Amino acid sequence: MSTRHEATPPLSGIRIVEIGHFIAAPFASRILGDLGAEIIKIEPPGGDPVRGWGAQSSGASLWWSVHGRNKRSVVVDLKQPEGIEAVARIIARSDALIENQRPGGLARLGFDRRRLQELRPGLVVAHVSGYGQTGPARDRAAFGVIGEAIGGLRHLTDHPPGTTDLPPPRVGISIGDSIAGLYAVIGVLAGLVRRSALASQGQPDDDICTIDVALTEAVLSLMEGVVTEYGALGLVRQPVGARIASAAPTNAYPSKDGRWVIIAANSDLLFQRLMALIGRGDLAADPALKNNAGRLEHVELIDAAISAWSCTFDAKRLAEVLAGADIPSTLIYSAADIAGDSQFRARGMVREVSDPRHGTLLHPGIVPHFPDSPGTIRSTGPEVGQDTEAVLADIAGYTAAEIEQLQKKGVIA
To answer: Which residue among the candidates 34, 48, 95, 177 is catalytic per the annotation?
Structure first.
């Protein structure tokens, strides 16, 4: 039996204010909250519009249960001076601030760099926007899908040239927002580490640390060698559908019952093993297919041979045969497959969570995983403003009479 002490989650004791809406900044704060940080979400009267997105149950968004988890909801009208003052008092007692308004939006509320510096020396501030805080496009409106298009992802998720007149498909989730949110998380953590390191050296850094994350740049940063290949060779990488442009064979192959199975046998050894499995020793022995470059030149031939074999099995049996041969492969999972996956369940990546509104729900687990100090799902997405009074009293220092007065004036809810 293990006697190892389980430490507190890694970000316990860190307080972060979120002035965000929709996806990017709220996703960032959710990740930080999962790792133990206290998240104070500032919402307008009526709440974040994303509360109404996605499938509904009991009159509320199921996605919100996940997107808003591990957060405290504080409703403040930032159009009123008293609302600005309330948020200022919360910021003054926090470690970081994450926001995703258009550039300059925070300053227009009265929270420019100088004011934030006065409120909380050493504050870490992450700005998430479409195009960044500077540059000629900084004021343009953007959502994640715009970042995906400008960053180059939407071009590569298109159908292969000449195969269809359909528009380029998106990946099915707001991945541009989520990527930007993850970069904001990295920035916040780096800022907190820097502040801590300086303090340990007896050099407290009282200046605020600013992080500037653009949706467009977050996506572009993932584009492998796309820009470098163009700069050096004038090469514009093209969509390849389910294949990988740089290695073969890797593709989605059909099964007898109409499903698709990914097979990634793109090393020399794996190719030989797969050809033996499908009974194509002739292809394994072909000198033209001995290395990856040759296989890329003859990828249509190879894929046709694999497809002819794969479609003789039902998908489940096909996956079992490939796994038995130790070839990287998998069914393409639906939500039902994910929910029933034993590996996800064993690691807590799919877990049952009690939600006050919905009852027992399945939530995705916490990434990254700290075995010795795991983060926890302490609460599901809060009701609008459910923590307003508690936060103003416990953190901002308002008296009960002052809170009642703010309520009467419609400043808080």
So the answer is: 177
